Amino acid sequence: MSTKYAIGVDYGTESGRAVLVNLTNGDEIATHVTPYRHGVIDEVLPVNGLKLGMDWALEHPADYIEVLTNSVPAVMKESGISPEDVIGIGIDFTACTMLPIDENGTPLCFVDDYKENPHSWVKLWKHHAAQDEANRLNAIAEERGENFLPRYGGKISSEWMIAKVWQILNEAPEIYDAADQFVEATDWVIMKMCGNLMRNQCTAGYKSIHHKRDGYPSKEFFKALDPRLENIADTKLRGEVYPLGTKAGGLTSEMAEKMGLMAGIAVAVGNVDAHAAVPAVGVVTPGKLVMAMGTSICHLLLGDEEREVEGMCGAVEDGIIPGYFGYEAGQSAVGDIFAWFVDESVPSTVQDQAEEEGISVHEWLEKKAAAYRPGQTGLLALDWWNGNRSVLVDTDLTGLIVGYTLLTKPEEVYRTLLEATAFGTRKIVDAFHNNGVPVDVLYACGGLPQKNRLLMQIYADVTGREIKVAASTQTPALGAAMFAAVAAGTEAGGYDNIVDAASHMARIRDDSFTPIPENQAVYDVLYQEYSKLHDYFGRGENNVMKKLKSLKEQA
After folding, report:
1. pTM score, two decimals?
2. Per residue in 28-81, pLDDT tens?
3. What's the rounded Cα separation, in Å, for the pair 327 and 316?
4. Residues 197, 213, 306, CA angle at the centre, nearest 5°?
5. What is the CA radius of gyration of the chain?
6. Which of 64, 262, 487, 503 could connect to 266 by a Cys-Cys bridge, CB 3.0–4.6 Å?
7. What is the DSSP string of 23-59?
8. What does the pLDDT look like over 245-296, one tens digit per residue?
9. C-alpha to C-alpha distance for 533 and 400, rounded to whole angstroms
10. How far apart are CA 278 and CA 508, in angstroms?
11. Which helix (H) or strand (E) holds 293?
């Protein structure tokens, strides 16, 4: 029997990438990236030039289909593999990235009557303009003693489905009324491939307050939010929720022709990008925290029982690996912070020196920053350039650097920003570990661990834990391909379950990062100072960040 393959498609913030994977050993045969033609829409609406408000982030759904029709044929052509040997396709996506659709599954931004209203477009995960709705939702849920709230660390984020839907209802009721359903982008793309709209357990559980046994919150709760929302679970969010690895259907003839694949191959239900990465690094048991590191970080962890942890984004039964509670936490900006510094704050002298040495500005800064010992910069930062996801769950918080002098150098600031994100991760690790969800070792995947060794060593020193790094550079896509293999099943050459798939396909580098004791001792001291700043500015004692943001909005 010939070797079989699956395709995983990873939808990120700026682009989508397809990876063709050997199902025998997880080898990545070919990869292709398609940048989103319209990018992140956060200033003006493309169709009419309408200026968007602060904290808006939209996308164009046509860009997602272009990834399928561009990148999938590209990997097939590059590999030379016969389409007959590709048995399935799976995707992972940023979340909550959501959109309103009509009864035909058409995004409302494709409908002439609605396309000039920004609420008809895809709201990207980092759309934070529903913070007012999130604040009210959390206050009402706490007042009512809703039992779902502790499962989400005590707060529902403005990034998630209900807050975003409520914003649409408040600001554009005509869009709310016209929407037949509100869906995750990952579920919509799956529908475009196989014709079936099937909500997946991962996004529903983590982003839409859906519980495996209890379903959505009660009608009484939604009515308490807004009488117009009373029946939303049975109308706008209706439909069965399916476990990961479920076959959503077969690839349609129309899409198969456009993608260069065989019609009828298995299409797995959608998944979240970071969550798909967990089995791809071989994590299928508790005690191992996976960091999907890119523009932001998503922290994933398995547990044997349901525990309450401050600021966690969710504890979902079977949400990542069947048989375990999957815990999620996260940091809203990590790589984005480093990119901001390079793009907006580095002097031209640094750019000139990097160019002279034939390396990127990031590489130059990393090399220079690595020469400093912990504490040597005299700087300390809070990593809230895009708000705080965990443990404070507050998008109105902003960044802070303490300790500047007239002698401060760019590489010192760069190192301080690396350290700040590591301290943010330690906050999350401590929250889990101190609340009965053990964290013994860290696994890192994504672009950052592959590129920045200094960053990984700092994370090991700050958290006091070994860090293992994924061998794959496209770990979420590898995980999506693994779930495609499960959807196809053993009869087609796939696997019966994700644990079996992981045992054959997961890939980890031989080397790892371990804490350096003398560095760890200094970082323990710095972490105490970070924690004081964290609580002072983040827990209400000094709301200067929110006051400044409010004044900016008024201006």
Report:
1. 0.90
2. 999 999 999 999 999 999 999 999 998 999 999 999 999 999 999 999 999 999
3. 7
4. 115
5. 23
6. 487
7. TTT--EEEEEEEE-TT--B-SB-TTT-PBP-TT--EE
8. 999 999 999 999 999 999 999 999 999 999 999 999 999 999 999 999 988 9
9. 9
10. 12
11. strand 287-293
